[in-house]
Amino acid sequence: MGDHRDGTPQHSGAVVTSDGAARNQFPDPGLPPHRPRVTDVDPKAAKRAERQVVLLFIISVLGSILFFIAYFGIRVEGPMYDVVNTEPTSQLRLQNLLLGLGIALGMFGIGIGVVQWARTLMPDHELVEERHDVRSEEQRAEAQEILTTIYDESGIKRRPLLRNTLIGAAVLAPLPFVGLLRDLGPTDLTVLRHTIWEEGTRLVRDPSGTPIKVSDVTLGSAFHVVPENLADLGHHDGYLDEKAKAVVLLMRLDPDKVNVSAEREDWNVDGIFAYSKVCTHVGCPIALYEQHTHHLLCPCHQSTFDLTNECEVIFGPASRPLPQLPITVDSEGYLVARSDFHEPVGPTYSQRDFAVRDMQGEAS
Q: Where is this region: Disordered (predicted)?
């Protein structure tokens, strides 16, 4: 029965092995016979398939053009959201619809077009080749010849319309994403140096605008907060931009469980802390607060900040703590800001160090 000690298939007896003598009894059947496609034997079918691919590439081009028309041609004038129902306006809905439709058509057309081209027009013969290292000049020349053959068999030379529409679709398809990436953040970093927070500005709830008293913030609670003077701005005055920079999270912790540096001892009120809601990684809004661990989590890339240690980064790609907003109490018992943030809010870029030094120079 063999040696069972190591339990391997060769010795366990559970698998019947062969000494190789019977290998020649089962010759390699080889590849199955090639079955030509309709487009291989019918020129009309091949021409029809070519027109289909060209049409798909044209759809991709038109989708990319539609994106640019919606992105640059439709201007959302006035408020972007209905104040009463907090719903997008008709202009914003139309722009979003056309932007999404343009991207979908742009990527769908070029993707399906390439697949249809490969399925119906490119050679589909199955080949078996031994893998080898390309070292000698002869082998390099052979490899070059193979690539040239592939280029010729793809039909690009023989089908200029198909080639040109593919080039047009391939050039235009990535451009919508360039526009979207440009909108991820400001190109001028100076706009992140300051927000509309200033000394005496009340902290109010978002979106109701209700001022917050110390007694409203219980242990373990969290509030989404904006400055009271934000309501004085109209949409043409940069309301959304200022709100995106100034929004903060307000939480109350047991003061005995919080480590506070000497220069920040008067930045909180009886364990009530205010920190920027904008993640220092790429600027996603932080909205997840774990009460038991006192951690703030960014839902985009899982950056985690420790509230008990001045929101230092304990996990994730963020490279610096969340900026803290110094707060105090006014004569009526409402929470107010002592000043603006002492450092830029938002993502940390390579130029951010220069902005911090500039701010420190202005403060001195």
A: 1-43
